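Attaching the record inline, Q. Sequence:
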Amino acid sequence: MPAICLADEEYLRVQVTAPYIEMHTGPGETYPIVQVAERMEWVEIRKRRTDWFQVVTRRGRSGWVSLEQMRRTQTSDGEPLQLASYSQDDFRDRDWEFGFYGGDMEGATLLGLYGGYSFNENLSTELSFSQALGDFSSEYLFDVNLLSQPFPEWTYSPFFTLGGGVIRTEPKSTLVQAEDRTDTTAHVGVGLRVYLTRRFFLRGEFRHYTAFTSREDNEEFDQWKIGLGFFF
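Structure, as predicted:
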């Protein structure tokens, strides 16, 4: 399979074999088409974002072309351009990720989902929402955190988290007589990402929380979870 980037300032050139390929202003169908590259025209591949490739024409016009349309090109030796759908390199260079998880929070069943944005391959920010279903109450957590991934090139890649949020406790009125309450929280955590295939990866995580209550003493609790995520 031809390499996308040959050197720091040398890029793979391919020739359009379809009547034309559409060049968008960004990596997605929702971005407008800025121009087309017609049959027999040569373009350089500069960058890849999952299913989208940034190309530059001989006149210096830049745009993003989908994976499906890039397969309608050929290399200088006349062979069709062969492109893998996804790879671990795409995972390392991701912009967005989403996922869901299940686990345990002090004996209660934990369910949740999250979304994250990567500033670079080492640092990202995330929002998450969780619900813990206990025998006597239900807890709802909303968290914002920073995530540091020091070894993004590893298949089994550890990460560390630091953040805060709020927790709302709603007792089950049929079992106990207590008021609902909302407290702020802070947490630290450690986890592991494992790239699986295509856009999917496995994620496991442990977090230690401190809840700052309106009473004189704060509360501490732990959270274990594992889930599946996808990126783009």
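The domain at 92-231 is CATH 2.40.160.20 (Porin). The radius of gyration is 24 Å.

More tomorrow.
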